[in-house]
Amino acid sequence: MPRAIRSKVVALTKVKSNRKEGRKEIIRAVVEAADNYDYVWVFSVANMRNQYLKQVRHNFKTSRFFLGNNKVMAKALGNDPESEIKQNIHKISESLVGDVGLLFTNDNVETVKKNFDSFSAQDYPRAGNIAAYRVVVPGGEVLRGYTKEPFPNNMEPELRELGMPTLLQSGKITIESDFVICEKGDRLTPQQSRLLKHFWEKMAEFKVKLLCYWHNNGDFVELESNQNTTSKAKDDSASGEDSDEDME
């Protein structure tokens, strides 16, 4: 008996990975920005939240932000005096360590500092964040917020699953004794971070920290607040690789 011939799907086109093209585009955009703007800043972000970063971008409508692969951005600017595209700009590349980004702007130094110093936002912490303070839920009926609002009774199973020894009594969620959600300095677990959100504890602060800047006259200035943290960031990044995902 002849073998059955099964239909095969033959791809007539081959899609190549666009990762390399994406990196080339970032390099091109960074080089173009270096030609068009007077200042290049390196910044870090504590407790990154996209909605707040959008507000920061809104304050710099005529500027450009780059967040992504540090190695690609450093390559675009030049990693040493021989490969740098502008005088002394390789020092910016040397500062691209850890979770940082680039700001290209024509705004003067004082304007940039004022904008970043005046902006911060409180949000709920995420798993892995460090607890800013101790949070204790008193024994008795479980309440939350400054208004001491009671939880709806259908939340009791979820609170119990997150580790609280809750009871449902006469339609009210209660605990027999004080319950500590976290101590100051704890590295938060997923359960703790969810509990803090349920109790409306916004202990994470979104804040942009300016690390250093370069001016197109060749001046490079490292801010005093960054000098004590640069070596630690380099040690932390030595054991990890930059992400292949890039976002402008």
Describe the structure.
This protein is α+β, with helices and mostly antiparallel strands and 248 residues long. The protein contains nine helices and 13 strands. It has helices at 19-36, 50-58, 70-77, 90-94, 109-117, 156-161, 190-198, 224-227, 230-238, and strands spanning 39-46, 64-67, 100-105, 121-123, 135-137, 140-141, 143-144, 149-150, 167-169, 172-175, 179-182, 204-215, 220-222. Strands 1, 2, 3, 4, 12 and 13 form a six-stranded antiparallel sheet that branches. Strands 6-10-9 form a three-stranded antiparallel sheet, with no helix packed on it. Strand 12 and strand 13 form a beta hairpin. The longest helix has 18 residues, at 19-36. Residues 229-248 have low confidence and may be disordered.
Question: What's the layout of helices and strands?
Answer:
Blueprint: H1 19-36, E1 39-46, H2 50-58, E2 64-67, H3 70-77, H4 90-94, E3 100-105, H5 109-117, E4 121-123, E5 135-137, E6 140-141, E7 143-144, E8 149-150, H6 156-161, E9 167-169, E10 172-175, E11 179-182, H7 190-198, E12 204-215, E13 220-222, H8 224-227, H9 230-238
Antiparallel strand pairs: 1-3, 1-12, 2-3, 4-12, 5-11, 6-10, 7-8, 9-10, 12-13
Helix pairs in contact: 1-3
Summarize the structure.
This protein has 248 residues and is of the alpha+beta class.
Assess the beta-strand content as a share of residues: 15-25%
Oligomer: single chain
Low-confidence stretches: 229-248
What is the N-to-C succession of helices and strands? HEHEHHEHEEEEEHEEEHEEHH
Q: Output the structural class.
A: alpha+beta
Main sheet properties: 6 strands, antiparallel
Shape: elongated
Cα Rg: 25 Å
Helix content: 25-40%
- The total strand number stands at 13
Q: Could you tell me the mean pLDDT? A: 84
The first-to-last residue Cα distance is 61 Å
Total DSSP helices: 9
